[in-house]
Amino acid sequence: MAEPLLFVVGAPRSGTTLLRAMLNRHSRIGLCDETFFVYWVAQRQRVFGDLADPARRARAIDRFLETRRILRLGLDLAALRGCLQQEAVSYPAFFAALLRFYSRAQGKPIGGEKTPQHALSSRTLLDWYPEARLIHLVRDPRDVVASLKRMPWGSGSRLGDAQTWNACVMGAEACSADPRFLRVRYEDVVAAPDSALERLCAFVGVAFEPAMLETSAKKTDRWWFDRAQGALEKSRVERWRSELTQDEIAVVEHVAGKALSQHGYVPAGPLATPSQLAVARLKAQMAGLRRKLRHVPATFWRLVRPDLLAREERAIDGPTDPAE
Fold it and tell me: Between 3.40.50.300, 3.30.540.10, 3.40.190.10, 3.20.20.140, what CATH number should domain 6-213+237-317 receive?
């Protein structure tokens, strides 16, 4: 019987890459990098159709395997294609087969994945896989927004970034009563990684291994992921105090609302004023317009040929720097 799948979710820039790296140092865990399977495949069921049909299944497989997200995994694509053609008879089966192929390629029995925005599909993942385990990594929304502010692929506004945090947190927390759900705070991982990892290992059903605390100087093709391979930096906690303005802090705290204190974060100041919110909304609208204009090619390809995933990906991200 296959081991339960393990999913790590959370708002972007919450430390999910760091947590995946730590979990993957375990001798039994092999978590796949971000696939955005829900976006690229599952949400296009009307396009690809019933995967029980071998021809439709082959088309979905070929299109997904052309994307950079899959190419950068470094898998044997011919073997993966053969595996998926045999096993991917439904959308849940497609995803599971991909993740288990990846873990087997790493010589690990426990497969899974971390795509932060799969937090929005947490209930779907748990419904698809009754034996799955879902880890929700939560980070102070002000630090998340401060980090997103530096990212070339962020929303372009603090209001938009805060709304992303709120949506991801609410999406994952909708499953908080499920025994297959575990919430972990980024700050707790940084402060006491051994204790946090022991708790995570108990949840997954494996013994803690000291190797999980080791670090690496490994470089990736995405500079914003490189720090996740190195030593834990406690200085990254509460960087928002020096990187966000008072107006930005007020806006983030307004969007986070009760979730801020519910997750153990203390508000820094008074509630946002109507004028602060008005300015934030205007900036968000302008940033949204710029983003839509930048994504016109991708929108065109999704409307005209929604199955051309690699072409749409290039139109969104550009030729060399995928924005994740």
Answer: 3.40.50.300
